[in-house]
From TrEMBL:
InterPro entries, per database record: Cadherin-like_domain, FG-GAP, Int_alpha_beta-p, Integrin_alpha_N
Signal sequence annotation: 1-20
Annotated organism of origin: Sorangium cellulosum
Domain Cadherin-like beta-sandwich-like: 553-638
Swiss-Prot/TrEMBL keywords: Glycoprotein, Repeat, Signal
Stated name of the protein: Cadherin-like beta-sandwich-like domain-containing protein
């Protein structure tokens, strides 16, 4: 049957009215045509929402008394005002089961069920049904004519119909009025009817309630007890005794009291030590765990008279009385009372450590606790174990008494001869020596040492041993060349050696026993040579192989001669074709050879031909009378080395002149990052009026001399822009970066005055016409953002410029990818080209394995259509060319990416790693490219190797640095040479700068520590920490080798000589940005250290 829902009579009326008309859609002929909202059921159009014959579906009929409710469900049809409850129409105003029902008469709409004696009031509320004449007040039917609380009440007994509450002493008169008329048993006192049996103010009153008839007023805490007497008012369960409310179940003075607590109802007084038990009975009060027995609290676990008692200690709960000699055991059982350490067995106290019948017994001496009975010949050994009874000094082992001092199977046994007490079994050939130790049984005269019988009179390892050959008895170990003779070590020397001082010496060479013979005693002990002498053929001779003087026939020694200096440089004019050297020996009798030809001390050598336009090495070998040899070297430079010492035109402390350098032919450029002038453009005011703006100085060489040609500033100078951070020079074009420049412009020649992107960076291009320089372009990245450091590195070749921005954040890879910010400090490089005087960006370069923190663009280099980009933070552990790029197993190892251009399109040609990749090596910190050769610096490399292709796996010199030379064949790159400094040491940072031009390669090491100067030779002297050095390598026949070790002309600690350098042809430019001279211009006073960190540059041409 369809679900029945409530549907009010109004709906039924609507339904009946609807059914009284013709059904829509019926026609006089043919199939009926049903209207909107109707369904054809058979031949009748029906509204399935309301049609009781087709309710919800065709042919579904509602039951009699139901209608279709408009939603297609059958529902009971009740008259207006009625509610369908439980399938019946009820009146919710009068129905007692559903009083106040509404809606569908379910849940909260079901109304309430009126209680017994209640009716549904006609307003849908349950209320009392009172007999005629009564009124329902406060839930009770009252007589309004007599009820004192609602005297005269009527209606619903609320508000004015509630009647009045009659006053004290008044009654409701029977006519619904209050009046003073005391009922029987009450007494009128003070205008009020009171009950003299209960009234506290007139307790016991009578008559007219005056004088002695006024009763008494009960005291505080008393009541009038219902009999007209004042007494205490006690809480339920308490009894008033002696003027106090007490608990008769627990009160010790009136235990069990009741009634008025007098006579037999006064209870009993509990005795001392008793309590009123809580049930009104006196009984002993025993602590927890005790039991009351015979009027005394006893411990049932220990009481001998009531051992094990419980409950009320009566009958079977009274426990047992322990017999004489027994105690109550503490567990409520009677047992023998044995002294400490004894156990009760079979009714007797026994010692379980010694009793042979119960050896090892414990507890109650039953079952497994009964111990064991020792066998015949055994005793209970005092530790509760049965064992053989052996005579004193013997031990029971394996059921037999043995002597542990001599028994070979149990040598040294003790105790129970078990485990570690079982002694040891002596090996074959050993005896138990009488002291309980196994030792070799050696023939008379021999001693057992280290498990072997030796002869102490001849054994070299235990010479003179005795006894047990241990400690001081182990004898002595004879030294090398000694033998043991009659138990004493002494030298055994083979001729021509002689035993002297306990050792064999060669008297012909020994400086302490020079010329000794025989027993080396007295005059035969020879002589001791003095310091600086050696023993030669049994006689003392000088060992001084030094020179006391050295002179040359042309030029001058550099440095000046010093006996302690071994290497010198001499520069001579080109017309000098030969040179003579005059060496003087310090020691008489010393011999000298110059280039292998003997020369007398103090005499000139034969003329030595000099290589035209090159260097000639001269070797001077001094041999002392002792045979000791010292070699001196002199390098003669024919035609010399043209050098210059360059300073800024406005030298000032902290300017860092030489922070970056560039060189091309006869032009060089030097930046001073800390220079303070606010000038702009070319050759402006050089005053110090804006901190750390930076400047660039251009020098040109004229007739062999360098002169300053221009003083360059940016077109928009600003504090801390780092103008001059990187330089690159190509012909008449100079690129100058300012990595700290703050404009948010993009592209070429944008708005320079906008400082909306801190440290975004910029590059300024200057161009020379004749001798005049002018700014040609102001370049910005295509995706300028704060902190990108565009211009960190620049490289220029003709009309192509590459710019590095190592902290750019795009996660793109390859060429011209997306320029978003998905990889913090991944880095990027930008390629610009010039057409006429117009610069445009040609390419946006990213690494093929872009990663956050890789610093791609930390270094850049370009040669023709090939460029290289360093990424010092790249983390792959790959080695060589085109290895696995996704491996990040070597953080900070670094990588270099080579790109090649075809037409205007750049593509990555190679991914290069060091051959000995290591975390933190910073491979790619510097790059230089010339044709098909690429040099890469790695200042963090740690090998202590020197020269070319040394041991790369040796990491004993952290931060010594290395340079890797790669060459290209076709389009394939491979490592050609691994270069190290000739004096590689930790912290030298070899490879901080590199420059390559055809067959020459220059490398800087700003952390090198030698105090040598110019073309130095004292490589191992670390007297000027952080002074720095440069190294010149030359390729000959495909092999790279070091040509020169170069130092500043005024070497000083912390000058960082070599931090930047540039090479062009046979001219080298080396910077020392921390040099301290206050000189200005060219070849000033380099010894004056009055301007800390002013900086200097040095040139050398050969």
């Amino acid at each position: 049957m369809p679900h029945v829902r409530i549907f009010f009579f109004l709906g039924l009326a609507f339904f009946l009215a609807a059914c009284s008309s013709d059904s829509p859609g019926e026609t006089s002929g043919g199939a009926p045509q049903c209207g909107t909202g109707q369904t054809l059921c058979g031949d009748v159009c029906a509204d399935l929402a309301t049609d009781a014959a087709h309710c919800g579906a065709c042919d579904v009929s509602c039951e009699e008394g139901q209608l279709c409710d408009g939603a297609g469900e059958c529902a009971v049809s009740c008259q207006r005002g009625l509610v369908a409850c439980d399938g019946t129409c009820i009146d919710p105003d009068t129905d007692r089961d559903h009083c106040g029902a509404s809606g569908d008469c379910t849940g909260s709409d079901a109304g309430v069920t009126c209680g017994a004696g209640e009716i549904c009031s006609g307003a849908g509320r349950c209320e009392l049904s009172c007999q005629s004449g009564l009124v329902a007040c406060d839930g009770t039917c009252i007589d309004p004519d007599t009820d004192r609380d609602h005297c005269g009440a009527s209606g619903d007994c609320t508000g004015s119909d509630a009647g009045v509450a009659c006053g004290a002493g008044e009654i409701c008169s029977g006519a619904g009025r209050c009046e003073l008329s005391c009922q029987s048993g009450l007494v009128a006192c003070g205008g009020t009817c009171i009950d003299p049996d209960t009234d506290r103010d007139h307790c016991g009153a009578s008559g007219d309630c005056r004088g002695s008839d006024a009763g008494e007023a009960c005291a505080a805490g008393e009541i009038c007890n219902g009999a007209g007497r004042c007494e205490l008012s006690c809480q339920s369960g308490l009894v008033a005794c002696d003027g106090t409310c007490i608990d008769p179940d627990t009160d010790r003075d009136h235990c069990g009291a009741s009634g008025d607590c007098t006579g037999s109802d006064a209870g009993v007084a509990c005795g001392a030590g008793e309590i009123c038990s809580g049930a009104g009975r006196c009984e002993l009060s025993c602590q927890s765990g005790l039991v009351a027995c015979g009027g005394t609290c006893i411990d049932p676990d220990t009481d001998r008279d009531h051992c094990g008692a419980s409950g009320d200690c009566r009958g079977s709960d009274a426990g047992v009385a322990c017999a004489a000699g027994e105690i109550c055991s503490g567990a409520g059982r009677c047992e023998l009372s044995c002294q400490s350490g004894l156990v009760a067995c079979d009714g007797t106290c026994i010692d379980p450590d010694t009793d042979r019948d119960h050896c090892g017994a414990s507890g109650d001496c039953r079952g497994s606790d009964a111990g064991v009975a020792c066998a015949a010949g055994e005793i209970c050994n005092g530790a509760g174990r049965c064992e053989l009874s052996c005579q004193s000094g013997l031990v029971a082992c394996d059921g037999t008494c043995i002597d542990p001092d001599t028994d070979r199977d149990h040598c040294g046994a003790s105790g129970d001869c078990a485990g570690s007490d079982a002694g040891v079994a002596c090996a074959a050939g050993e005896i138990c020596n009488g002291a309980g130790r196994c030792e070799l049984s050696c023939q008379s005269g021999l001693v057992a040492c280290d498990g072997t019988c030796i002869d102490p009179a001849t054994d070299r390892d235990h010479c003179g041993a005795s006894g047990d050959c241990a400690g001081s008895d182990a004898g002595a170990i004879c030294g090398a060349g000694e033998i043991c003779t009659h138990g004493a070590c002494e030298a055994s020397c083979a001729p021509p050696l002689v035993a002297c001082g306990g050792a064999c010496v060669d008297p012909s060479t020994d400086a302490t026993y020079c010329g000794a013979a025989g027993d080396c005693a007295g005059a035969r002990a020879g002589v001791t040579c003095s310091a600086g002498e050696a023993c030669v053929a049994g006689a003392c001779a000088s060992a001084d192989a030094s020179l006391s003087g050295l002179a040359v026939s042309s030029g001058a020694l550099s440095p000046a001669f010093d006996p302690g200096s071994r290497l010198y440089v001499v520069s001579v004019e080109d017309q000098i074709a030969s040179i003579e050297v005059t060496p003087t020996a310090s020691a008489e009798g010393a011999t000298i050879a110059v280039n292998g030809i003997s020369v007398a001390s103090g005499s000139a050598s034969p003329p030595i031909p000099l290589i035209e336009g090159g260097s000639t090495a001269i070797t001077i070998e001094v041999t002392a009378p002792s045979g000791d040899v010292t070699t001196y070297g002199v390098v003669v430079l024919r035609g010399g080395v043209a050098s210059a010492y360059l300073k800024a035109s406005n030298t000032d402390a902290g300017d860092q002149f030489g922070f970056a350098v560039a060189l091309d032919g006869n032009t060089l450029a030097v930046s001073a990052l800390g220079e303070d002038s606010a000038a702009t453009g070319v050759d402006g005011d050089q005053n110090d009026n804006t901190k750390n703006c930076g400047a660039v100085y251009v020098f040109v060489r004229d007739g062999g001399s360098w002169v300053q040609q221009a003083y360059l500033k940016p077109s928009a100078a600003d504090v801390n822009d780092d103008f001059g951070y990187s330089l690159s020079l190509s012909g008449d074009t100079l690129a100058v970066s300012a990595r700290g420049e703050d404009s948010n412009a993009t592209g070429v020649n944008g708005n320079q005055a906008n400082n909306g992107a801190a440290n975004a960076g910029a590059v300024y291009v200057f161009r020379r016409s004749g001798a005049v320089w002018a700014q040609e372009a102001y370049l910005k990245a295509s995706n300028t953002e704060a902190q990108d450091q565009f211009g960190y590195a620049v490289a220029l070749a003709g009309d192509t410029l590459v710019v590095g921005a190592p902290t750019e954040d795009s996660s793109a890879t390859g060429v011209n990818g997306g320029q978003g910010n998905g990889a913090s400090q991944a880095g990027a490089a930008y390629v610009f080209t010039r057409a006429g005087a117009t610069w445009t960006q040609q390419a946006y370069l990213k690494a093929s394995n872009t990663g956050a923190g890789d610093m791609f663009g930390a270094s850049v280099a370009i040669s023709g259509d090939t460029l290289a980009v360093g990424a010092t933070g790249e983390a792959s552990a790959a080695t060589g060319a085109n290895g696995a790029q996704a491996d990040n197993g070597a953080p900070g190892s670094g990588a270099v990416y080579v790109f090649a251009r075809a037409g205007t399109t750049w593509t990555q040609q190679a991914y290069l790693k060091a051959s000995n990749t290591g975390a933190g090596d910073m491979f790619g910190v510097s790059v230089a490219i010339s044709g098909h050769a690429l040099a890469v610096g790695a200042t963090g490399e740690a090998s202590a190797a020197t020269g070319a292709n040394g041991a790369q796996a040796d990491d004993s010199a952290p931060g010594s640095g290395a340079v890797y030379v790669f060459t290209r064949s076709g389009t394939s790159w491979s490592q050609h040479t691994y270069l190290k400094a000739s004096n590689a040491e930790s912290g030298d940072a070899f490879g901080a700068s590199v420059s390559i031009d055809n067959e020459f390669l220059a490398v800087g090491a700003p952390g090198e520590d030698s105090s040598s100067t110019e073309w130095g030779w004292l490589e191992s002297d670390n007297g000027a920490p952080g002074s720095g050095a440069a190294y010149l390598f030359e390729r000959s026949g495909g092999v790279w080798s070091q040509d020169a070790y170069i130092k500043a002309s005024n070497t000083g600690a912390s000058d960082a000589f070599g931090a930047r350098l540039a090479l062009s042809g046979t001219t080298l430019l080396v910077a020392a940005a921390s040099e301290d001279s206050s000189a200005t211009g060219v070849d000033g006073d380099g010894a004056n250290d009055a301007a800390d960190g002013s900086g200097a540059c040095y040139t050398a041409s050969w």
